Amino acid sequence: MIIFNPAAGQLDARRDLERAVALLASRGWRIALAETTLADSATENGSCRGRLWPGGGAGRGRGWHLNEVVNGLVGSEVALGVLPVGTANVWAREIGMPTAAPLVTDLLPAARALAEGRIYRIDVGRAGGRHFLLWAGVGFDAWVTREVRPEIKRRLGPLAFVPAALGTAARFAGSRVMLSIDGRRLARRALLVEVANAQLYAAIARLSPEACLDDGRLDISIFVGQGVFYLARHIFRVLTHRHLRDPHIERYLAQQVTIRSRMPLPVQVDGEPSGTTPIAIQVVPRALRVIVPRRVRPGLLRGRPEVDLAMQASSVAEERLWAKTQGVCWAHPGRV
Predict the structure, then answer these.
(1) How much is the pTM?
(2) CATH of the domain at 262
(3) Is 144 exposed, middle or buried (0-12, 13-18, 19+ CB in 10 A)?
(4) Residue 318 CB partners (closer than 8 Å, separation 6+)
(5) 73, 88, 112, 210: least CB-packed within 10 angstroms?
(6) Sign of CA dihedral 212, 107, 158, 205
(7) What is the CATH number of the domain that holds 75?
(8) Do 243 and 134 share a structural domain?
(9) pLDDT in tens, 217-250
(10) How many CA atoms lie within 13 A of 295 on its CB side?
(11) Cα angle vertex 31, ends 79, 85, to 5°?
């Protein structure tokens, strides 16, 4: 099933989506399209236990939409694949999925990458009752996501976060937080606590360059300090890749972390608001099947792929050819 949100993003990619569907169908995929503009329906569609042949589900869109699909697929045997529009899809960039240039909606390169990709089983995080694919944050970035209105984000894309970030920087000076990281207790004055499952952060920085999607652990970064000076310093250090040795940016690997604060702080999950502190965050090992291109960044995945879709598609093509030469009607017995 391909779930797409016509209201997501700044471009209408229906025609390009149809071309991508045709390409996947030519590789043996059986596809159903589900159009949705509501978060709950995206989760409901994502949780269906049907499957595509050769073996994946796909989402087209960005922002909350992908997270909703992820929450529907966690624990199922349906694999997640993405057909990204534009350059803002962080997950697509993380796994090296081809993305079109700005204001371009060509989905064919991504469709080819899906058809020739591999299926891996990866970890997800869980913050409260919500799963996340990329990261969960407490503090500064969560305040920013609260400030951005959905209609502005659809119209401006990533630029919508700039005025929200500037306004938040002027108001938020940091907060006292208490953390329990795999049982180890810490208290810090922090601007941001980021709990990452992936390496990339917001498509602009490799915040956790050693993060692995299937190692059973989360990468925690605590940005210590208060005020605009420390905030600007942290941003500069991250953008220039100098944050890994910064004593004011503490980093931990853990299976779970609990974050408390004297006053409730906002929480964001995969870039969308998701409640307030206190919050318990833990890793859910190997809970999601995903389709990734044949080549990914070294260290991003350690396990072996469960399925090689290119080889499977080749097998399907051979069966069809055999059936044609024998003069019989061919139909794959896979479930739909």
Answers:
(1) 0.84
(2) 2.60.200.40
(3) buried
(4) none
(5) 210
(6) positive
(7) 3.40.50.10330
(8) yes
(9) 999 999 999 999 999 999 999 999 999 999 999 9
(10) 1
(11) 70
